[in-house]
Give the backbone structure.
Amino acid sequence: MKFNELGCFFLSKVNNITESLEKSLDKVVSRGEKNFSVHNQYMNFLRPRKTALDEPLYKFSAGRSMVEMLGVLAIIGVLSVGAIAGYSKAMMKYKLNKHAEAFNMLLNNALQIKDKLEYNYDNENGYTEYGDIFSKLGLIPSGFTYVNNTYMTDTFNDKVYIYSVTKPSSHNIPFGAIRTHFQPTSEGADICRNVVTVAKENAANLWYVTVYKNVFTDDQVDEQGSIYGDAYCGDDKKCLHNLNIDDIDALCNICDQDECAVYTLWQL
């Protein structure tokens, strides 16, 4: 190939490369103009729309108003009061169930050893107390607390007496007894219902159950009625095993307002 021909060949190649570079540059410029056009459109968006695209949402959150916050606090307060009331009711029911279990155990312990107990025939009333004996024999149930030979306290800190009377009294029959004595409180009637219900469950072994008000604070002692065990009821004597909820309420409703005592008796 001659020199002139070789120069023409290289010159044509350079021209081709130049044309390719120019085309590429045109594409770049065209893309830049297009991108610039999109940018201009973006910049012309309404400010809220642009802001929404530019910034995270949390930077533009307005938060809660005072009214909304007060509303939330009010709802929380109502729910809290309801929860506390429900908890208190559940705790009272739990304590009453524990009291019923403990009283039932105490009564059954007394009935099981009644024939083995010693009785005081020497004093004027033949009155014998058993607090010490029950404490030493481990017959005081969980939830009840020994205080002295005369009495113990129950789950609600009411006084509970276990004793016997062997000389003729108003009954003219020797008997053993548990007396639950409590001051008027909001749960007084519920405690009374517990004691009477436990007595009903042991009706086959009891003489009778009675409720008194104003036991120590009034000259006028009022008996609310006596309900008898299976071996002693009938005719004009009400039977313990026939008691319903209304009967128990009639016996115990006074115990919310007045000093009250429930006597659970068995014959010796």
Remarks:
- Residues 66-113 form the longest helix (48 residues).
- Residues 42 and 50 are 7 Å apart (CA to CA).
